[in-house]
C-alpha cells in the first residue's frame, strides 16, 4: 500500500473521472515508480485544484470526542483528495437528535400495542425449562396407548366401571360399538409380562399413565377374551336373528313354489316341444333345455319382424291352454330370494351357533349370572329354529335347482331365481302386446265393415291364429336346407343352439 493510501484510510473515496473538471487528463499509472512519492499522474495536470471536494461519508469508527460506546450511526464529511492536495482534518457532522429531546412518552402513548397477557418473568421460565417433568413408566407401545386412550374417552366411564360391567355382563353399561372397539385391546403376552414385572417390583401405580392403569385392571378379569366375545354375542344376537329369518323363509318359499308349480312345468313342456320341432331334422329330440334358454325366446322373430317366438308361444297358450295363463301366481318370493346369498346366510347361522355354545360354557362356569341364565332361557329356542330353517332352506334350494337341471354349486340364488323373474316379466309383456294387437285388429275390422264396397267377410280370430301358425311352420320348413331322418340323441338339447342354427 502506498503512502497516500495509508494516509487516506477507510475514509477516503477516490472520485470517478466523471467528477473531475478535466476528465480527459486525469489518469493514474497502474504501477507507480518506487522512487517517486505517493501516486504520480502519468500526465502533468495543467490546472491545480485549489479547493478539495467534500462528500458525506459514513464512519464505522467513532470520531474524535464521540462516546466510544455510542451507536455507530454518526455522519461526518471526509475530504476527497486529488493528487498533490494535502488531507485536511475531518469535519464533525451535526449531533443526532436524542429521544429526550423528542419526548417519546407521547409517541409511546399513541402507538403502544396491547399486552397479550400478564408479563412473564423470564427467569421463572428458564427455571421451569431446566426442570424436566418426571418420566412415567409405560407398559404399552405409544401408538397403542394413544388408541386405547381415544377408545376409553368414547366409553365415557371410569376404569372400575368398565371392568365391573364386563365381569357382570352388564349390557346397559357398555354399548356394542364400544365393546367391539375394546376387543382390539386385549392384553398381549408381552404386556402381561411387563405388568407382572411391574407388580413384582412393587412400584407405585401412580407412576403409570391412565392407559397402563386400565390395562393392569383389564388383565385381572378372569377369562377376559371369552367374556368379551360373550358380551358382543349377547348384544348382537337379536338383530342378527331378525335379519336372517326372512332371508331363509324367502329361499324356502321360492324354491318350493318353483318345484311344485304344475302350470310352470306345463309351460316349459310347451317350450320344449317347439324346440324339438325346430331341431327335429338336425339333432333329434331333446330331454330338456337349460334355463338360460328362456332368454333366447325373445331373440327369434317372425318373418314380418312384428312378433317374437315368445309372443307366438303366449298366443298358443292363451288359445289352447287358457288354464296356464296365470302360472306366475303360483310362484312366491322370487324377487326377495334372488337377492339372498345363501352361503353367507348359512355361515352367519353357524357363527350364531358357535356364540351360543360359548355362552353355555360360560354359564356352566358361572351359573350364578342372571344375565346369562335369562338369555339362554329366551333365545335357545330361537337358535334351534334358525338351525332348522337353515337346513330346510339348503335342502329345498338344492332340490329345486337339481329339478330344473342346474348345479347348486355353480348356480347360486342370485343367478337361479332371476332367470325365472325375467321370463315372467317377458311373458306378461307379451300378453299385454297381444291384447293390444287384438284391440287394434278389432278396430280395423270395424272400420273396414263400415266402409262401402267391403264384400269380403271378416276373418275370425281362430282362423287368423291358425293362418299365422301355418305361416311360421312354413317359414321354418323353408329354412331347412336338407331333409334328414329323425335321429335320437341321448343328451339334452339347448334352445339357444337351435335358434342360432336357424338364423
TrEMBL record:
<comment type="similarity">
    <text>Belongs to the formin homology family.</text>
</comment>
<dbReference type="GO" id="GO:0005884">
    <property type="term" value="C:actin filament"/>
</dbReference>
<dbReference type="Pfam" id="PF02181">
    <property type="entry name" value="FH2"/>
</dbReference>
<dbReference type="GO" id="GO:0005829">
    <property type="term" value="C:cytosol"/>
</dbReference>
<dbReference type="InterPro" id="IPR043592">
    <property type="entry name" value="FMNL_animal"/>
</dbReference>
<dbReference type="InterPro" id="IPR042201">
    <property type="entry name" value="FH2_Formin_sf"/>
</dbReference>
<dbReference type="InterPro" id="IPR001265">
    <property type="entry name" value="Formin_Cappuccino_subfam"/>
</dbReference>
<dbReference type="InterPro" id="IPR015425">
    <property type="entry name" value="FH2_Formin"/>
</dbReference>
<dbReference type="GO" id="GO:0008017">
    <property type="term" value="F:microtubule binding"/>
</dbReference>
<feature type="domain" description="FH2">
    <location>
        <begin position="60"/>
        <end position="453"/>
    </location>
</feature>
<dbReference type="GO" id="GO:0030866">
    <property type="term" value="P:cortical actin cytoskeleton organization"/>
</dbReference>
<dbReference type="GO" id="GO:0051015">
    <property type="term" value="F:actin filament binding"/>
</dbReference>
<feature type="region of interest" description="Disordered">
    <location>
        <begin position="441"/>
        <end position="469"/>
    </location>
</feature>
<dbReference type="GO" id="GO:0045010">
    <property type="term" value="P:actin nucleation"/>
</dbReference>
<protein>
    <submittedName>
        <fullName>Formin like 1</fullName>
    </submittedName>
</protein>
<dbReference type="GO" id="GO:0008360">
    <property type="term" value="P:regulation of cell shape"/>
</dbReference>
<dbReference type="GO" id="GO:0016477">
    <property type="term" value="P:cell migration"/>
</dbReference>
